[in-house]
Amino acid sequence: MRNLFALLSIIGVVGLGALASSAVADVIAKSESRSPAIASLSDVTRIRAGDINCRHCDLSGADLSNQCVKNGDLTGANFDRVTARYMCMSLANFTDATFRNADLTGANLGQSVLKNADMTGAKLNIASIKGADLSTAKGLIQAQIDLACGDAKTKLPPGLHVKSCS
């Protein structure tokens, strides 16, 4: 009788092990085919952890206030609807990035490259764009620039003018 119980115990342990392996395989399969929301969370986590290079990452809708990507490469990154108040973004590459309806209040974009960046609806209240290259930025209007400050080295699309920072 004791041998029968031992045998049943072994069969139970092996069965649980197989069930656990199946569950682990399901989790791995699901993580490999991550949804955009999970991928986005991963990109946000990278920035918050101090990663300044996040090409084509999806940061849309995140709160990145007071984060720093100084000298980073964020080419093609999605900053749509981001709250990036007082974010340190100087000397970074934002070529082809999108900032549609982003809140960049107080952000430091000094000497950043924003070629072909979509700035439609971005809030630039007290943002520093000193020396930034916005010469080919899309969706940028004078009302946005009036709320920011720059310098003689700031490059803007034709017809737009920036006030100097004090």
Describe the fold and architecture:
The structure is a single chain. This protein is mostly helical. The chain has a domain of 106 residues: E3 ubiquitin-protein ligase SopA (Pectate Lyase C-like). Helices cover 30% and strands 0% of the residues. The chain is built from 3 helices and no strands. The longest helix has 31 residues. It is globular, with a radius of gyration of 24 Å. It starts with a helix and ends in a 19-residue tail after the last helix. About 22% of the residues have low confidence.
Question: Can you summarize this structure?
Answer:
With 166 residues, this protein is an all-alpha fold.
Which helices and strands occur, and which strands form pairs?
Layout: H1 2-32, H2 36-48, H3 142-147
Keywords, please?
166 residues; Pectate Lyase C-like; single chain; mainly alpha; 30% helix
Mean pLDDT: 83
| Main CATH class of the domain at 52-157 | Mainly Beta
Tell how many strands the DSSP assignment holds: 0
Beginning-to-end CA distance, first to last residue: 91 Å
What is the helix/strand order?
HHH
Described by strand count, sense and barrel closure, the largest sheet is: none
* CATH architecture group name of the domain at 52-157: 3 Solenoid
Percent range of helical residues:
25-40%
Category by helix and strand content = mainly alpha
Assigned CATH superfamily of the domain at 52-157: E3 ubiquitin-protein ligase SopA
Tell me the fraction of residues in β-strands, as a range: under 5%
User: What is the tally of helical segments?
Assistant: 3
- The unreliable regions are 4-39
CATH topology of the domain at 52-157: the name is: Pectate Lyase C-like
- Note the overall shape: globular
Radius of gyration, whole Å: 24 Å
